[in-house]
Structure formats: structure tokens, C-alpha cells
Predict the structure.
Amino acid sequence: MGAREPRVGAEYATASGLPVRVVAVSGGQLELQSLASDSRFYVPAGYPLGPMSGSNLAVARRSRPHQARGPAASAPVRMKPIAPIIDAMLLAGGHTMRGIVREIRRKASAASSGKDLKANVRARFYWLKRRGYVAERDLRGCLKAAQSASAAAEKIAPA
């Protein structure tokens, strides 16, 4: 039951009846991949392998072996939106423009690649002003969007 020189890519059956495919031959070892479970393992070069036929197989083959078990590598990365991160930092205050950009790159690196983050911060500042917030900058250059007195009074007053 021994295959003298197993070929890479060829399918065989082990002595116990497990269907396998030879993945690599290197350094006196064979790398085999189970066609029943897709697991890979190493055996010595002289390991007995025989022809694969239905009568000597102890385990059924998978109908479609070598399927990836995780998400596809080409699946799009789910990007975290950067607007809520910017809004939270502007409303909290205490961050400079450089600090906000640094935090966005750290928290949402995939979504921030290839974008002008300073322009995004300025745009969020603009929209916060349009919603009734006032732009403030302290002596250290930290940005803050605070609610204006008129907008705060409108929220308190019953309609």
C-alpha cells in the first residue's frame, strides 16, 4: 500500500482510510491535507499512502474540500464612521486639531485612510455651528463646540 513518490496535488488514502491530498514534500516530510476535515498535518516521507478508492476509505470526503472557514479575504472591511468620533471630541473639548486627527487615526484607521481629516473636523465644526453651537478655542488652542445661550433657552422653554 505504499506510494513510492507521492506527487504534490495528488490524492491518496492513508493506511487508516483517511482521504488526503499531498500539499508539499520537503525535508523528508510530507504535508498532507485531510479531504474529510481540511486539517493539515505532517508525516514522514515513507508514510504508507495508497490509491484512493471508495472501498478503502473509512471516512467520507467532503463534497467541496478546501473551503475557507472564515470570512473571505476580499470581503469589505466594515468601516467605523468618523463623524461621531469628531462630534464627541468637539463637544467634550480639550483637544487640539492635531489631537483630534491623531485620535481619529487611532480609533477609525480604516475609515480615515486617504481622507483629509482636518477638512472633516472643520466640516463637523461647521455643521455644529449650523445647529446652534458656538465655536470656542482656549489659550492652548483646544477646540470646543458649546451650545449657545439662545439654543439652550429654546430647549428649556416649553413650546
Notes: The first helix runs from residue 83 to 92. The first strand starts at residue 11 and ends at 14.
